[in-house]
Amino acid sequence: MGRREDARQRFLRLANARVNKALKAIGLVGNLSNRSNYSYSDRDVTRMLSALEGAVRDCRWRFDSAAPTKRQEFRLDG
């Protein structure tokens, strides 16, 4: 049973760190909405938000099914 507690503690430590890191990164993406500093189109915003929503959907699916997925990289081209 001690092994299970170790795995639980590792999960809690990593989950807290990774979710907080993701929330901070999403907040930084939100900072891009400042039109006085950045120029973007509605299409850019739609593509960014779709990529983020897709990543959350894939994450949820992995927890539901425990199946591995491939990582996708997001890139806007100017």
SSE order, one letter for each helix or strand: HH
Helix content: 55-70%
Radius of gyration: 17 Å
Computed structural class? mainly alpha
Instruction: Note poorly predicted spans.
Output: none
Polypeptide structure, described:
The protein is an all-alpha fold and 78 residues long. It has two domains: 1-34; 40-78. The protein has two helices and no strands. The longest helix has 30 residues, at 2-31. It is elongated. The model has no long low-confidence stretch (mean pLDDT 90).
Please describe the structure with a list of short key phrases separated by commas or semicolons.
mainly alpha, 78 residues, 2 helices, 2 domains
Write the layout of secondary structure elements.
Layout: H1 2-31, H2 42-65
Short description:
The protein is mostly helical.
